[in-house]
Design brief:
Shape: globular
CATH architecture of the largest domain: Alpha-Beta Complex
Mean pLDDT: 86
CATH class of the largest domain: Alpha Beta
Number of domains: 2
Oligomer: single chain
Number of helices: 10
Largest sheet: 8 strands, mixed
Length: about 500
């Protein structure tokens, strides 16, 4: 009997050979793919656009730890006044008449920084401990060929940021705040504002001018130094490192603020606007402006020697110190606007805490009251349109309703605390310009404002405070109470 020969592939040896062949192909494929992935990883890890991608490979990143250029920062550690360094541009010739602006907010042994003068202040020695320590600006003669600026001291002033950084750049510095010698800063509010920004990134925080012509002549992307501005540590470091070439690159810009803005733009950074910085490129009486502050923390004032005293019957020095009394009690509410209505008489009360109370003998809307009364004038006469914001005219008795003209009472005193509230008083200083007719609101000479003890969180999604009328205390006085608005509360009345 013949037996048919079996196929070799069905034999055990054939099956084994076939499996080895397949395994060899698979191994070669895996080796090839591994090589491709390795080369791809090498290429991407060295490509400029992917330098930060390594963080994605961290399986167990360190929680809340951010590496800065000079120290590790725990993001749960809030910014405080010790993290700020101030650089103030000044002149020995004018320091005697300007120093009280700086001394109004400077806190010896708490705030740190320097006043940079153009020469040794022989006429001001001994230097008082109530003022920031001074330094003499470095010699800038090497930049003479590049000084084509209309502001002759622009280069010295722009180098203040560089010199401040070189003097203070150790661990613990997060922000560099630049100001002029007539800048008034609200440093508690400033610290709270800067807390919301990551100081390990590139931030240029400030505000442009109130007047269009000033921004047009410089840049709408420029922070005005008189109002003050803040640079985060990495940005200040980069600016200081590149200051020399930047000065040489921009010899024709008008002044120091514009030079700095151009330098920062070259670094790929744009301004972060904070409406509480105030350049005050305005003239005359700015009470209308201060009584309708934007819904943002009040951070600074400038040019107070070019406007009328901010409180009537006081000189500029007295008026500023008077404002700082309110600031010392509750800076978070200072100038913040609240509105309440007397339904019985159709009266409107607009409270600018720590500054003024305006009373109208008709119902006025929130949007109307948010526009400042134009008690002030434009920076450059004839410029049109003059302002970066809407204003309302101050109508008088020339055929117009007196409902547009408020009875204004100004901050007078702090009465202390009562029922877990801070009590401030506001009194009438001047008669209302509304003809000879008597109006009931003109008889109100004093108002007490009760405000909560807790700090106010302004802006960033928070509403304004609401306001209630308390029963009249006397014939010529009333009281109002500020409070947190209820959910979805509309603070308005029908006209």
């Amino acid at each position: 009997m013949s037996i048919e020969k079996s196929n070799s592939s069905d034999s055990p040896n054939g099956i084994l050979s076939h499996n080895l062949f397949l395994n060899g192909i698979l191994c070669k494929t895996l080796v090839f793919l591994s090589l491709i992935l390795y080369l791809l990883h090498i290429f991407l890890s060295n490509h400029p656009c992917c330098q930060s991608s390594s963080s994605l490979l961290q399986v167990f990143p360190t929680k809340n730890i951010i590496k800065s250029s000079n120290y590790y920062y725990n993001s749960s550690n809030k910014t405080n006044i010790s993290h700020l360094v101030f650089g103030i541009a000044a002149s020995s010739n004018t320091w005697g008449e300007k120093k009280w602006y700086i001394n109004s907010w400077w806190k010896p042994n708490i705030t740190r920084g320097y006043v940079f003068l153009d020469r040794t202040p022989n006429e001001h020695v001994p230097w008082p401990v109530s003022s920031p320590p001074y330094r003499i600006s470095s010699d800038n003669s090497q930049y003479a060929p590049y000084n084509k600026h209309r502001m002759p001291f622009a280069i010295r002033m722009v180098r203040v940021i560089e010199e401040t950084f070189m003097l203070h750049h150790g661990p613990g510095v997060r922000w560099y705040v630049m100001a002029d010698d007539d800048t008034v800063l609200m440093i508690d509010n400033l610290v709270n504002v800067l807390t919301k920004y990551d100081h390990t990134k590139y931030y240029y925080v400030g505000m442009n001018s109130e007047c269009i012509v000033s921004n047009f002549g410089n840049s709408f992307q420029m922070a005005f130094g008189g109002a003050g501005y803040a640079l985060s540590y990495p940005l200040a470091q980069a600016v200081a490192k590149n200051m020399d070439t930047c000065i040489k690159r921009y010899p024709y810009l008008y002044g120091s603020d514009h030079i700095l803005q151009a330098c920062i733009a070259d670094l790929g950074v744009t301004i972060t606007l904070e409406k509480g910085f105030h350049q005050i490129d305005l003239r005359r009486d700015i009470s209308g402006f201060l009584s309708a502050h934007p819904q943002s923390p009040f951070l600074s004032l400038h040019h107070l020697d070019l406007v009328a005293p901010i409180f009537p019957s006081m000189n500029r020095f007295e008026a500023l110190n008077h404002l700082m009394k309110a600031a010392s009690v509750d800076q978070s509410r200072l100038l913040q606007q609240s509105t309440c209505y007397n339904k019985l008489n159709n009266w409107t009360f607009s409270v600018s805490w720590g500054y003024s109370v305006q009373i109208y003998d008709k119902i006025q809307s929130q949007s109307y009251l948010a526009m400042p009364i134009e008690t002030f004038g434009e920076w450059r006469k004839g410029a049109w349109p003059p302002y970066m914001f809407n204003v309302r005219g101050l109508k008088s008795n020339n055929g117009n309703s007196c409902g547009e003209v408020p009875n204004v009472l100004f901050f007078d005193s702090l009465e202390g605390t009562r029922m877990n509230h801070i009590v401030t008083t506001y009194v009438k200083k001047t008669p209302r310009s509304c003809g000879n007719d008597d109006h009931p609101i003109d008889g109100i000479l004093k108002i007490r404002v009760f405000s909560p003890m807790h700090k106010l969180h302004v802006g960033d999604g928070n509403k304004r405070e609401c306001c209630d009328i308390i029963q009249p205390i006397g014939v010529d006085s009333m009281a109002v109470k500020l409070r947190t608005c209820t959910r979805h509360e509309i603070n308005a009345r029908m006209k």
